[in-house]
């Protein structure tokens, strides 16, 4: 367990004021008669794949709680979770003096929150928690999408685990003997067969209903699919894209529904700030555990925090939480972009990096 002093010192050294203020009320000035105007809160949302509950590295379970204790996000979307792993995390956080609530999803993925969860619901590959932040209700969705059909590997010369009898299934997850496959139409067809976009559209429809009830909506997850904003003409000859430009359909559907990609809003350039979240380096794991395409540059941004614009919510910042090193061609290397990292001084529990986005949210009730 990381000592509180170490955590506080780390926070002060590496992140901006916006993140430090997370969870603190910003009450409006009071007039002469003591009446308060609208209040605001800084709210932080963390997308966090916990790699089978931290079971893959020594002290990984403690590392999950130490990460949350250091960052103190208001809402965490957990991927590779389960009811048992969530219960372990809540117990470990309680040992560190922190109270979180969970959305009782019977499977993966989960939502945990420092604010009360007043409603919850499960969907295929997704779950929802409605939280009450001083009278402002927020529907937060957590997703962990199908990991097979990982067809962003095809241009890199590897099979993407597409099941039979579909095309490319004969390669499994192995290197393709004939080299990269750059047929974008084929890539898009196999990506659609994954069902990732279809199950996400179910949640997008639910989110639209939540907004009709006056609620804010956010969704985050490990999509196991890149962003259409990252496989562009400018990146077509980088990161072993091998000349391909791919309009990945899940992020596109989310944006078409009006949501905004918080990381790309703050860091719009996919060359200067690629924001890769997988694979992440992890000092507690061999490189062979961290790469599925050992001869390729397989880095991608597959973990996201999206929000739907509303006058009551304003994006302030989005940063990567995790090591600033990664795995390229089975070697540990420094990330090549210019993004900010909240680097752990504790045990990093996962093969992903996490995404932390900070918002200012207007609340209906002044906070005293």
Automatic annotation (TrEMBL):
Keywords: Endonuclease, Hydrolase, Nuclease. InterPro entries: Endo/exonu/phosph_ase_sf, Endo/exonuclease/phosphatase, TAT_signal. The keyword Hydrolase applies. GO terms for molecular function: endonuclease activity. Residues 46-352 form the Endonuclease/exonuclease/phosphatase domain. The keyword Nuclease applies. It comes from the Bacteria. PANTHER family: PROTEIN CBG08683, PTHR41349. This is Endonuclease/exonuclease/phosphatase family protein. It comes from Streptomyces pathocidini. The lineage of its organism: Bacteria, Bacillati, Actinomycetota, Actinomycetes, Kitasatosporales.
């Amino acid at each position: 367990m990381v000592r509180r002093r170490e955590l506080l010192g780390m926070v002060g050294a590496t992140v901006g004021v916006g993140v430090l203020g997370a969870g603190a009320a910003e009450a409006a000035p009071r007039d002469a008669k003591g009446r308060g105007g609208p209040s605001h809160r800084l709210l932080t949302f963390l997308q966090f794949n916990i790699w089978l509950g931290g079971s893959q590295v020594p002290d990984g379970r403690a590392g999950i709680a130490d990460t949350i204790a250091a960052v103190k996000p208001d809402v965490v979307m957990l991927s590779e979770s389960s009811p048992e792993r969530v219960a372990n995390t809540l117990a470990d956080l309680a040992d560190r003096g922190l109270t979180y609530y969970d959305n009782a999803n019977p499977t993966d993925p989960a939502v945990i929150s420092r604010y009360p969860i007043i409603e919850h619901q499960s969907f295929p590959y997704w779950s929802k928690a409605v939280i009450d932040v001083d009278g402002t209700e927020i529907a937060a969705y957590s997703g962990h999408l199908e990991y097979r059909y990982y067809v962003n590997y095809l241009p890199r010369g590897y099979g993407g685990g597409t099941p039979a009898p579909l095309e490319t299934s004969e390669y499994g997850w192995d290197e393709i003997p004939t080299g990269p496959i750059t047929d974008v139409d084929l890539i898009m067809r196999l990506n659609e067969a994954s069902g990732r976009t279809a199950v996400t559209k179910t949640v997008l429809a639910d989110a639209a209903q939540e907004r009709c009830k006056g609620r804010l909506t956010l969704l985050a997850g490990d999509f196991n699919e890149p962003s259409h904003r990252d496989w562009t003409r400018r990146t077509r000859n980088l990161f072993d894209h091998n000349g391909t430009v791919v309009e990945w359909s899940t992020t596109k559907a989310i944006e078409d529904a009006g949501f905004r990609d918080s990381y790309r809003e703050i860091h719009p350039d996919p060359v200067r700030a690629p924001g890769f979240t997988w694979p992440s380096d992890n000092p507690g794991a061999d490189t062979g555990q961290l790469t599925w395409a050992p001869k390729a540059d397989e880095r991608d941004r597959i973990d996201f925090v999206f929000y739907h614009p509303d006058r009551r919510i304003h994006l302030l910042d989005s940063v990567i939480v995790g090591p600033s090193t990664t795995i390229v061609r089975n070697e540990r290397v420094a990330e090549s972009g210019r993004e900010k990292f909240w680097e752990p001084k504790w045990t990093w529990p996962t093969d992903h990096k996490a995404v932390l986005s900070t918002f200012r949210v207007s609340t209906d009730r002044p906070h005293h």
